[in-house]
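Extended Data, panel c. Modelled sequence:
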Amino acid sequence: MGPGARERMRAIPSVLLLLGVLVTMGTPTGGRAADIDAGRRKAEVCAACHGPDGRSTNPAIPSLAGQPTLYTHWQLILFRDGRRKDPQMTPVAAPLSEADIEDLAAYFAARPPAPPRGTVDPATAEAGRRLVGVHHCDSCHRPRLDGQNQIPRIAAQHYEYLLNQLRGFKAQTRGELEGTMTSAARPLSDEEIEIVARYIASLP
């Protein structure tokens, strides 16, 4: 195991601790049950960018369908509170109430995920699978890369979106809370980033 892999493995306990912190910070505490039908109505404005039912048709914009509830919940809080900035998302999230966020997160979590974004040749699939294993993507995103808690589903996201995110983490221009993704992306070459993005986009 190389030094980069050891660094990421050492980071896993702190990531698990962070999960507990985020669950406490991002989970509703008022006892209110999320209203999926209300979330559907509130999500109508989201469709312009994220696609019908949260299944994006824009290669640069992620699908929200099938994302873990806590992931969407926490990201909307970050956008709303200005801790994550985006020229489109920040003004959309700014007026959201806690109930709005709960309903939207529950709605998108209940939607079927987008289908795989094309296929890859066997050599690319094998190289992508190996890189995902070497860099421990499944430690946080789970073996099927379908996410958990505040960790996003990345399987079947658009290739272009995944490519941009990985490049941003490698260049340290993409913000994150704990630094795990920056550590994971930093050792990847440009070619390896392309392989990983194509492989993940092809997964169901």
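Residues 8-27 have pLDDT under 50 and may be disordered. This feature is highlighted in the accompanying rendering.
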